[in-house]
Amino acid sequence: MPRQKTQSDDFVLRHALDLMYEQGPEALTFAALSKRCGLSGATLVQRFGNKAVLKQKSLLIAWDRLDADTARLAGSVPRTPEGAIELLVGLTGQYGTIDTYAEGLLILREDLRDPRLRARGAAWRDQLCAALDACFAQTGVPAGVGLLAATHWQGALLWWGFDPKQSVERYVEQSLRDFVARTLGTAAGPLHETVER
């Protein structure tokens, strides 16, 4: 009869993910994870085989979380341009501080290196853009504005990262409000007046 696992794979993978977010992807080793989750390195190797598999399975959990957060937020916001802003600002909360954002970029590098993780990213993009398109459906703007809004959001995150003088949520919200106003053809001041630097 097989021995019962003392810690589930999900428990172990969440610890692995936390380790990567706290110290970077290179910090994920079987020895470091062993100290964190309480299982021996040999047990971890037996379960996951190698570091690449461990990393991929951990990052798939991160995609699961992002998919769930996106679905939850998309289901809770109004189907309006204001709802699109609310959705993207809600997703922005995961970035927190500049240090958290910078570590997240290292994690993104790992996603871009792995075909399975890239596919998850592409599927999430489609999910997010469909939700954003639904928010603009009644405005008369051409189809596909969801991708433009998501692209603007990601760009705003990057520009905030170079000059993080205010909270990321505030910066992103102001930038998205300007984007929406310009997309809908309503009054908007110059971007440098809208977004504090």
Task: Outline the structure in words.
The chain has 197 residues and is mainly alpha-helical. The protein has a domain at 61-194: Tetracycline Repressor, domain 2 (Orthogonal Bundle). It is built from 10 helices and no strands. It has helices at 9-23, 30-37, 41-48, 51-76, 81-92, 98-113, 115-136, 145-162, 168-184, 191-194. The N and C termini lie far apart (63 Å). The model is unreliable at 189-197 (pLDDT under 50).
Summary, kept brief:
The protein has 10 helices and no strands.
> In CATH, what is the class of the domain at 61-194?
Mainly Alpha
Residue ranges: pLDDT <50 for 5 or more in a row? Answer: 189-197
- Fraction of helical residues: over 70%
Secondary structure tally: strands: 0
Total DSSP helices: 10
CATH names the topology of the domain at 61-194 as: Tetracycline Repressor, domain 2
Q: Under the CATH scheme, which architecture of the domain at 61-194 would be assigned?
A: Orthogonal Bundle
Task: Measure the end-to-end span.
Answer: 63 Å
Order of helices and strands, N to C?
HHHHHHHHHH
CATH homologous superfamily (4th level) name of the domain at 61-194 = Tetracycline Repressor, domain 2
Helix/strand class: mainly alpha
Shape: elongated
Average pLDDT taken over every residue: 90
Radius of gyration: 20 Å
